[in-house]
Amino acid sequence: MPHYRAKSTLEQWRILQAVVDCGGYAHAAEKLNKSQSSLNHAVSKLQQVLGVQLLEIRGRKAELTHVGEVMLRRSRQLSQTVYELEQLACNMEQGWEPEIKLALEMVFDRNDLIPALKDFQEHGRGSRLTIEDTVLTGTLEHIRNESADLVITHQLPKGYLGEPIHDYYMDLVCHPDHPLAQQSSPISQDQLAQHLQIVIRDTANQPAEEGGWLKAEQRWTVSHFDEALRLVRSGLGFCWLPPYIAKRAMQKGSLRKLELKGSTCRKGSLYLVLPKGEKTGPCSRLLADLVLRHAPKRQQDDMEASAG
């Protein structure tokens, strides 16, 4: 409909919404700082050009007709779209990014991110957020190539700084009926090498040698911890898994933690990195501030400082 000309205006729909929300013309006129007669005229004109009745007066209250309920619901979507469009223009004029990307090392427990994301939804001015799972070299690529606005990583490339936000742990696990679970602990790497290892695929375009590979004779590669968990729980092989993935299965007895000679678990720190440095936009900085504010490590440090 390239030459279609709208019969109604956004202002008319805005007035209809106000009349309904305020329960009548008098309160709506006060809210919009307009005369009651102008609101009456706008709604009457809207009904006239549409050819349908939207409101009916019952006593002193204006109530929606069945048609009016449908039209009002759609008009709210239209008003929201226009608001978001104008907000986007304002954001771009102020240098506010319309879309940002957060790259997350897969060992990071996503539940720890929820409080920050809830705050970001409220204050992010409608900016779109893309969250991408990354592993090993793939995480470092996002930092070096500046292909993400924020990165949560367990290793810092040379020349980059990061804010510590959390510690991570990974346990070596298998099914309770797996042959490894029947051997005396602790288990040697030579014993492990005789069995199938499940590893997580490096997300880099040019992956480096995986740090978690224990030189097993057999190795199956999957793209996510959930798939690794499914395979290990079925009795296929062993794998390094973080507690947020494996904890429930271990509590239920469907996974067994293995004790490896010289290593009870794999652990380290997670850091928040802004790969673009000074070029980082205000929306990305807002999300970074929220992540740091809600970071378990930051909260723990604040509690220890208060106690001291």
Characterize the main sheet. 7 strands, mixed
Helix content: 40-55%
Tally of individual domains: 2
Measured by DSSP, the beta-strand proportion falls in 15-25%
Task: Give the helix tally.
Answer: 12
Q: What global shape is seen?
A: elongated
Mean pLDDT: 88
Computed over alpha carbons, the radius of gyration is 29 Å
- CATH architecture title of the largest domain: 3-Layer(aba) Sandwich
Number of beta strands:
11
Alpha-beta content class = alpha/beta
End-to-end separation in angstroms reads 69 Å
**Helix-strand sequence:** HHHEEHEHEHEEHHEEHEHEEHH
Please identify the top-level CATH class of the largest domain: Alpha Beta
CATH-derived topology of the largest domain: D-Maltodextrin-Binding Protein, domain 2
Low-confidence stretches: none
Describe the structure.
The chain has twelve helices and eleven strands. The chain has 308 residues and is α/β, with parallel strands linked by helices. The chain has two domains: 10-93, Arc Repressor Mutant, subunit A (Orthogonal Bundle), CATH 1.10.10; 100-308, D-Maltodextrin-Binding Protein, domain 2 (3-Layer(aba) Sandwich), CATH 3.40.190. Strands 3, 4, 5, 6, 9, 10 and 11 form a seven-stranded mixed beta sheet that branches. It has a two-stranded antiparallel sheet with strand order 1-2. Helix 1 crosses helix 4 (66-93). The radius of gyration is 29 Å and the shape is elongated. This is LysR family transcriptional regulator.
